[in-house]
Amino acid sequence: MRYWAYFVAKLAAAGAVLGGLLGLLNWQWPAERLVFREIPAHSSVVVFSDPLRYRLITTPARTITYDAPRFAYDLGYTFMVMILFLLAVGVVYLAWWDQRRRCRVCLHRLRMPVETGSWGRMLLFGRPRIEYICPYGHGTLKEEELQISGLENPEWTRHSDDIWEELCASSKDSGEPK
């Protein structure tokens, strides 16, 4: 649970920063006001308030203004929002990439990548894999070195809390007399 809460917190922090950047962009780049025309006093005029709707109004002399949608008319603003979107996608990818390489128990980054297996001796040692281990011994992450048949999920193996039990178990299996 703590593992996923940390991931959600990273995404929330990234969303707050990127939302602040979008707010700053909107504040710095005000909407362009389009002026349709001067309406003479006490005349009837057809005003297009939306592309699909219009209305007939009779007004005293004034100017009708309309806030233009930024994406439709302002190429500079649209380009800046595209850059901000690409930045957001990159930040989400980096958060996911960082999360995959963390311990599921203590959230420390996994260390000591060890390559196991060999393509030349695949029948003896299996396909090449990369194993990462938690520095505090909580578990091991095993992932394929080469993704041949699509994206395969890495395998997380949790170790027991007593590290000496696992170390002593390997010496007991060797067949030494007790």
What do these coordinates show?
There is one protein chain. The chain has 178 residues and is an alpha+beta fold. The protein has two domains: 2-100, no CATH class; 111-172, no CATH class. It has helices at 2-28, 70-73, 75-100, 122-125, 163-172, and strands at residues 33-39, 43-48, 54-59, 62-67, 111-116, 129-133, 139-144, 155-158. The protein has a four-stranded antiparallel β-sheet, with no helix packed on it. Helix 1 (2-28) runs antiparallel to helix 3. The longest helix has 27 residues, at 2-28.
Key terms:
178 residues; alpha+beta; 5 helices; 40% helix
Sum this structure up briefly.
The protein is α+β, with helices and mostly antiparallel strands and 178 residues long.
Which SSEs are present, and which pair or pack?
Layout: H1 2-28, E1 33-39, E2 43-48, E3 54-59, E4 62-67, H2 70-73, H3 75-100, E5 111-116, H4 122-125, E6 129-133, E7 139-144, E8 155-158, H5 163-172
Antiparallel strand pairs: 1-4, 2-3, 5-6, 6-7, 7-8
Helix pairs in contact: 1-3
The largest pleated sheet is described as: 4 strands, antiparallel
What is the H/E order?
HEEEEHHEHEEEH
Overall mean pLDDT: 77
Tally the helices: 5
How many domains in all?
A: 2
**Assembly form of the protein:** single chain
- Strand order, sheet with most strands: 5-6-7-8
Structural class: alpha+beta
Tell me the total number of β-strands: 8
